[in-house]
């Protein structure tokens, strides 16, 4: 069963050929957010788990074993701090729409007047 136009399903292929300037010349990888996160997790957690399970042993991993062990915790903390910074920035730069607020107030007044004509009593 095909998905409606503009909709994607889990069965969609993530690698597609893109027609650029009339020629089939380029490959473009179209990744969903899930695929991006999974790729990042594999690229980080794969080597990390190899070091933690002592599959990879060298002087560097022996010297910095504790730091390597705590690396995922550090990543989660940094992710949280970046998320808080992004939210704070977006709240700080949030724009007020005075015209839209005035239009909404006018529509509320009109609705109250219309309801009052129909016999509904409002506070």
UniProtKB/TrEMBL annotation:
Pathway: Protein modification; protein glycosylation. The keyword Coiled coil applies. It comes from the Eukaryota. Residues 94-121 form a coiled coil. One of its GO terms (biological process) is GPI anchor biosynthetic process. GO terms for cellular component: dolichol-phosphate-mannose synthase complex; endoplasmic reticulum membrane. Signal peptide: none annotated. Pfam families: DPM3. It is a multi-pass membrane protein. InterPro entries: DPM3. Stabilizer subunit of the dolichol-phosphate mannose (DPM) synthase complex; tethers catalytic subunit to the ER. Belongs to the DPM3 family. Component of the dolichol-phosphate mannose (DPM) synthase complex. This is Dolichol-phosphate mannosyltransferase subunit 3. It comes from Cherax quadricarinatus.
